[in-house]
Structure formats: C-alpha cells, structure tokens
Amino acid sequence: MSPETWKNIGRPAVFPTTQLAHSASGGKLNIVGEVPCTVSKGTVTKNATLYLTKKPSLDLMGLDLIETLKLADHSINSICRRVSTDNTPEWNQKNAMLQRHQNVFREGLGECTKAKALLTLKPAATPVFRPRRPVPYADLPVVEQELERLQKLGVIEPVNFSEWAAPIVVVKKTNGSVRLCADYSTGLNEALETHQYPLPLPEDLFAKLNGGKLFAKLDLSEAYLQIPVADESKNLLTINTHKGLFRYNRLPFGVKTAPSIFQQIMDTMLQDVSGAAAYLDDIIIMGVDRVDLEKKLDQVLTRIAEYGLRLRPEKCDFCMQKVRYLGFIIDKDGRRPDPENTLAVKTMPRPTDVTTLRSFLGLVSHYGAFIPNLHQLRAPLNNLVKNVKWSWSATCQTFFDEIKKVLVSDLLLTHYDPSLPIVVASDASHYGIGAVISHIMPDGSEKAISHAARSLTSAERNYSQIEKEALSIIFAVKKFHKMIFGRQFTLLTDHKPLLAIFESKKGIPVYTANRLQRWGTTLLGYDFKIKYQPTTDFGQADALSRLIGSQVKQKEDTLVAAIETETEVHRVLEDAVDGLPVTFKAIKDATENDKTLREVSGYLLTKWPNRRFQGEMLQYFRRRDSLMMVDSCIMFGDRIIVPKVLRYKVLKQFHSGHPGINKMKALAGSYAYWPTMDQDIENRCRNCSSCLQAAKSPSKCEPQQWEKPNSPWERLHADFAGPIQGKMFLIIVDAFTKWPEVYIMPNCTTSETIRKLSTLFSSFGVPETLVTDNGSQFAAESFKHFCRTNGINHLRSPPYHPQSNGQAERFVDTFKRALLKGGGEGTTEQVITKFLTSYRSTPNPNVQDGKSPAEAMFGRRIRAVFDAMLPSKLVDERSRDPSIRNFSIGDKVYIKSYMGKNRWEPGEVVQKLGRVLYKVRGAFGTCIRHTNQILKDKRTVQTRSNRPTFPLDLILDAPMPQTPRNTEKKSWTRKTTRTMGRRRNPVIKLQVDPRKKPYSG
C-alpha cells in the first residue's frame, strides 16, 4: 500500500513488522509497517493485512485476496500471449545507478563545494528588522524540533544580533511535521539587486535533447539548501523566531535572487556534458539508446558528486520513452504540445443556463479582440442571454463547438517563451476554479499558453468567497510552477480583498485567517505583482471556473487537501469555542435557531444577493468576504459568531475578572464576534456595580520610566500593600513581562520577606536587580546580606520619593481595586487567585508586542478560563518622560535636606546610579538623591545654552547667594516708571509636600 492510499483511508494505525518484500525486478521494497484491516467488495468481506511502503503510487493486491473478492478479469492460471516489460529497463538502470553512485543517492543534505551564493544590496538599501510571528502553542515542540534539525544540518546557526531580520511562517504538513518558510517579502527582497543571469530558453533546452530516444530525469533533494551562502551575505538571511535570531548558512527558499543563482550553478556544472539540460532543480538527460543514456548518466552523476550535491532517488526517473517538460511532451519523435494545456477548454461542457452562458461569452469577448470575425460565431448564442425562454438548440451546440476549436487553435495559443511577459489569471465560482497562463505578445495581443480548471470538493464549496478566490490563485501557481518560478509575472484577480493579503510588503498579515496564511506561504518563493481586474473584463478565467468538464481534482491532491482542510477547520473552531463558556453543540444549535444567522448561512453556501440590508445583516454583508461556515457554525476569521441567546452568558464570563473596557474588548476580540459586541461590552462594564464602586480617579501625573530590561525576570519591583481587610501583602512585579506575584504576609518582618522571596526565586530564578522602597525590611543588614549572597543588585528608591518604584506602586493600586471588586465572591485567597489569573492572561499594551504577562514570561499562554488569547494590537509606546537633568561626577550641587533647619545642603556628585539617581557626598555624609532633589550650584559658571531647567518647587526653595554689602554711597536718580494698564495678580507659590503618600490606604 502506498502512502497516498494510506492517507486516503484515514491514516489508520501502523504496527511494526519484520516482513520483507521485493519487486519483480529484485529490488528491495522498504516496508514501513503493517495495517490490519477489513476489505469488502459487494457482499464479500475478508480480513487482510496491508503493508505500508515508502514508494509512492505502489498498490499491490495478493492473489488470494484477488480471487476471494473476484477481482480478476481473467483466470489467474491462464497463459498471456504477451508480457509488457516496459518498466524493466527503467528499474534495472535505476538500480545500476544507485549502486555505482551511492554517495549521490544517500540520505542527508548535500553541500555544493564549487560555488557560494552572494547577495548584493541596492546602494540605497537600509536594514529591515521585523518582529517574530506568533506560533500556535500546540505546535511549538515540532517547530523547535525543526529548528534543531536545521541547526544539526548546518543550515542555520543562532546569532545574538543582526540589523536584518525576517519573520518565519510555519506550515504544518499532513504528516504532522512542519516546514519553516522565511518571509523575505518583508524587506530583504525589495532591497536586493537582481542577479543578472537569465533562465534558459526552451529552444536552447530542447536543442540539447534533440535526437533522444530514451530519457532520464533527476531531482535534487532540498535543492536550494545545498548551496552555501557567502559569509558576507549570511546576516542578510537572519530570521526572527520564538527561540531568538538565526541566520541561514545555506540558500533558503523565498529569496528573490535564489532561482537565478541556482540556475547559474546548474549550467556551470553541466556546461560540457552533452545531452543534459537543467531547468532549476530538474535535470533531463537523453540518449539514443540505453547504453548511451547510461554513459551520459554516469557523467552527470559523477559531476553531481564532484559538486557535493545529492539526489532524491524516489523522485528520479530512468530509461523513460517520453517526458513532460515546460508544456511539451518530448519523445523519440521530437516534441509536441502537451494535450493537457488545452484539456480544460476542449472538455468544457455546454452552458446550462444564462449565468454560465454569460461566462462563456465573456471568454469569447476577451479573446475576440485578437481574432477577426470571432464575433460572428457568437451571434446565435447572444440571443439566449436576452429575455427569451432558454432553449439550447443544435445550432447553438454547433457554434459552441466551433468557438472552442478556435480558442485552442494556433490563433490564440502560443508556446512558452521566457523572454515574453507572463500573465496568470485565476477565478473561482461556487462549483470550480479556473486559471490561464498567457504571454503578452510584442504587438500587445494576449495568447494563452495553457488552461487549467477543476471542480471544488464538497468541503471547498463551504469556503468563503475570499478563500475560494485565494484557492484559485494557489491552484494556478502550482499548475504553472515550471513556467513562472524564478521569473517575474503578473497575477490577475477579480477579488480586491486579496490585494491587501498577498500584495503586502510587510509580509503575510498576522491576523489573516489561518488557511489564507498557509496558502500565502506558497507564494513566498515567487516574484510577482498582483493586480485587480474587474469581473466584467475577466472572461478568460471566469468561464473556466464555471464551466467545469472532467478536470476534477487529482486523487492524491484531494486526499492531502481534504485532510489539511478538515484538521485546519476543526482546529480553528476548537480554538475559538475553547475560549467561550459555552459548548460547541450549544453554539451550533443556537446558530441553527437564530433567524439572522440562518439567513447568513444560506448566503454563504450560495451567493449574497445584490440588495440593501439593514441592521445586523448589513454588518454581516460588509464582512461577507471574511465569513465562512464550519460545522454549521459561522466563523469571522478565527472568531466564532455568537448567536443572540448566548451573548449575555458570554459577556458575563468575559467580565468575570472585572477587566476594564479596553482589556475586555481585547479579550473578547480574540474569540468571539457579533455586530454590537463593542457596544455591549461598554454597557456591561459601565453597569457593573462592583466596577463602579472600585472606580479610580484619573492619575494626575506619570512617574519617571525606568529603562526597559532586555529579558524576563531581569529586574523586579517589590513593595508592601495594606493593611487591607486586616492583612498585609507582598507585591512583586517583573518589569519586562508585567508578571505579578502576591503573597499574604503573616508578618512583615525581614526574615519572612526573605523567606517569601527565596520561595519565589526557587521557581523563577534569581533576578539581576531588585527595586524596593526604604522600608525597614529592605534596609536591614540581613536583607542586604541576602542580596549580596544571591548576586542581586538591590536598588532602593530615594527617601520620600515613592515614584521611583512606580512599577510596584502602580500594581498595588490595581491590586487594591481588584480586592474591592471581588469582595463577597469568595475568600481572599480565591479572589486573589481569580484576579491574578485574569491579569496574567490579558493582553497588556505595556508588554512587548502587546502580549499578556504569561505569554511574555513563558513564551506560551497559560491554561486559563479562556485557554489562550492572541496578542492585542501593538501600540506604539509614547514617551512620557519629562526633560531629564543630568549631572556629572564631580559637579558641585545642593541637595534637598529633610532634616535640620537648612532645606538645602551643599555637596558633590560622586556616582551616577541610573538615569535619575545620584550618590552625593557632603558634610552630612553620603546619600542617594533623585534628580528632582538636586540643584546645581549656582556659583558654577554656566553659559545660557547649558543652564538646566529646574522644577518650580526647587527654584522657590533654593538658597539665595549672599552678596557683599558695598558701603560706598552713590548718587542716583529715580527713573520714570511706566505703569501698564493691566491687573496684576499676586504670585502663588507651588507647595510640594513629599511626605504625603500618592493615595491613602
């Protein structure tokens, strides 16, 4: 049984086996394992064992099973007059090559020893550093395994710094593994100079293959990753991941210049080998007979070994009588157009209604400008689109067939030519998808190279329209890959929303629906410009998507896509429902009973009408391109639409932790949607009696910001809160992640404080810096010894200046309000636990990338009521710092004194402790003061440009310098003063009392 069949029957369990098997030619078949199963045909059923192999498209059935199920057309023991041996030369030649060139075919990644990839930047290019993309937490282990695998292979290596960084997009394969794609469309590709090496012309390739009667095709294993990158270019290929920065040592997929660099290496490798040609990673060798082919194969494989490259034996074909290549079939008679290029048009069924007829006539109109008198053939068909009864006559069928003959004739078809501009158009209907690749000829006319179409599966028909249109694009680029990869082309679509997703220079949008993100990674390696074309001018692809003949999806593609689709759809649905206090069945039942959502479901499965909507239906209509049906539920992107009867229950659960309006919107927006959700959230928060009773007054001033730490748990802020309800609490906040810890203190002694901190550090590690106030617990010698022993830099805020410990002070305020709100909802410990869970799980705009404290702390979302939440919208941090006065070591200053009769004492700056803290020495000894408590000695000579700006309270309290009295009498004359006719108000001095607390407990 082949891997494709195993996937088709649902991936049943595979058990180990010692069974050996060989092919008819004697070659060994790799058996992966055995699958017990039941095989039925009609009324006959038999238990059997299937053996899973690694070889694709290999499905064999034993004689006993064939006879039991009566599958044989002839008697098993009958004599055949002729036995086909077409495959025997191929297998014999392949086995011979595998034996003689084992190094080329062995497993592992090769490395080119003859050339390196060099990337050249444009002169005006500037570095672009993009933040990392979020990775689903369930997939983190496999992503880390892939990163480790690439590290072991030498493909990537970690770096600590880089000016360039691109995010990665993770694609999960159907076998559970992942593929990492670097999204260099975010900046690097735009900054790279074009590598001036053209792809070979088809005529040049075919010239090398003329006269061949037997052919072989070789396929390189992970071709680009076998090409090393020059040292000076490695930093350009840095990727940003959740594990940090890594740079590529090999040429990755997705770099704009990679195809031309790779083609140059292939041409150099094969330049003196006759009968061999390479188009990117496909190598074709021809021979006039088997001996000649083997001789040339030996030459090519020897050259590949010299270059250090390796091949995938399962993808290589030997001793073939014909091959498909660049839209042609090559055999002993030469080359001829591949019938598959025109199959979509030749098998196009006749229109069955006015809508499909209009689509076909649109196709005729598109090409009619290039063919004289084509409009005469459509005259009988034009009559059917008028207000007449539909009647498809024999005359209509005749003209329909004649038009199709013209469309696939040489008048409208041309052969692939890399020197001509390429246009790829794709479209989707409710039933199918269609695509056409065309050349723009020198005279401006458009000629098709190939057409393609297929019908949609039942699952795909449930896609939203934007997903169907995106699927048609992916179908087109995969179908025409050989003709468009490595060169620039234009992609046409009649669905405007796709431009915002696939045209973005910042990469695939993070919040794009998962399926579209996965498809977007397919386009990362292509160099294209996407353009919008109105539907009225899109006949070449529209007709192919609506008039589907026998072009159904390939069996293996259906299996892979169906499995991917099912797992992807259910994963999105489960993620959304897990965050809600209702079950999937409840949402499904309520959706089916909701009149509005039932109407929306009908439109999603058919088509939205062109009429005016009102109320909620208008909101759904405006978002119709982002809606899709999943198991009778409606999804808006990754969020589930909640029916009316469940909205109150969902709102109540979202507000269980009493978040504010903005935080509740961020939390709810990660899981659910309905048109009036924002308004309902605002009403819920404003009408919550607990929130109203604990509402705080607006903050009058902002504290001085500390420098941002570089990693979690680098700097902690600690403070005591209370007494609250007769209890004291120890508060610790991590400055980087805003992760809070709260301990109920039986007493506030130094020993108890050290005991709590030791417990905390045993779980999370010892921080580099601990910031506290001047409480007796933190000023004790035992606490200083504790910090020194653990290598902690202990910083205490200056006396009477609690703002310097603002991180802890701010959280104390939040914590007090949380206890007030949660009063009566349980014990103090229960209220604290609920509050901490909500706070740690809610996106925080002050955390990097707007993550929650838990995600920033652990790199994952903790399991809470809502399971997970997406990062809230990033908000640029606004600098709220006032003008900061700086002092240098040795500066003569006055410091504010809080003891004695003098309010200012002279001193000298001896050490700078931070951005705003200084150690000052004077007659009073040595002390620490904040910049707002320091005044520069006015006797120091200063120029106007470097005089500092002083706070008003410091200027008013500054000592006046004494001026020596001059006893010499001088004559003077009173000057005439002018009194202005304005009212003079008395000066009001600003009185600042630092002894007052910022709030009362």
Automatic annotation (TrEMBL):
<dbReference type="InterPro" id="IPR041588">
    <property type="entry name" value="Integrase_H2C2"/>
</dbReference>
<dbReference type="InterPro" id="IPR043502">
    <property type="entry name" value="DNA/RNA_pol_sf"/>
</dbReference>
<dbReference type="InterPro" id="IPR041577">
    <property type="entry name" value="RT_RNaseH_2"/>
</dbReference>
<dbReference type="GO" id="GO:0003676">
    <property type="term" value="F:nucleic acid binding"/>
</dbReference>
<dbReference type="InterPro" id="IPR012337">
    <property type="entry name" value="RNaseH-like_sf"/>
</dbReference>
<dbReference type="InterPro" id="IPR043128">
    <property type="entry name" value="Rev_trsase/Diguanyl_cyclase"/>
</dbReference>
<protein>
    <recommendedName>
        <fullName>Integrase catalytic domain-containing protein</fullName>
    </recommendedName>
</protein>
<dbReference type="Pfam" id="PF00665">
    <property type="entry name" value="rve"/>
</dbReference>
<dbReference type="InterPro" id="IPR001584">
    <property type="entry name" value="Integrase_cat-core"/>
</dbReference>
<dbReference type="Pfam" id="PF17919">
    <property type="entry name" value="RT_RNaseH_2"/>
</dbReference>
<dbReference type="Pfam" id="PF00078">
    <property type="entry name" value="RVT_1"/>
</dbReference>
<dbReference type="Pfam" id="PF17921">
    <property type="entry name" value="Integrase_H2C2"/>
</dbReference>
<dbReference type="InterPro" id="IPR050951">
    <property type="entry name" value="Retrovirus_Pol_polyprotein"/>
</dbReference>
<feature type="domain" description="Integrase catalytic">
    <location>
        <begin position="708"/>
        <end position="861"/>
    </location>
</feature>
<feature type="domain" description="Reverse transcriptase">
    <location>
        <begin position="152"/>
        <end position="330"/>
    </location>
</feature>
<keyword id="KW-0511">Multifunctional enzyme</keyword>
<dbReference type="InterPro" id="IPR036397">
    <property type="entry name" value="RNaseH_sf"/>
</dbReference>
<dbReference type="GO" id="GO:0003824">
    <property type="term" value="F:catalytic activity"/>
</dbReference>
<dbReference type="InterPro" id="IPR000477">
    <property type="entry name" value="RT_dom"/>
</dbReference>
<dbReference type="GO" id="GO:0015074">
    <property type="term" value="P:DNA integration"/>
</dbReference>
<feature type="region of interest" description="Disordered">
    <location>
        <begin position="958"/>
        <end position="978"/>
    </location>
</feature>
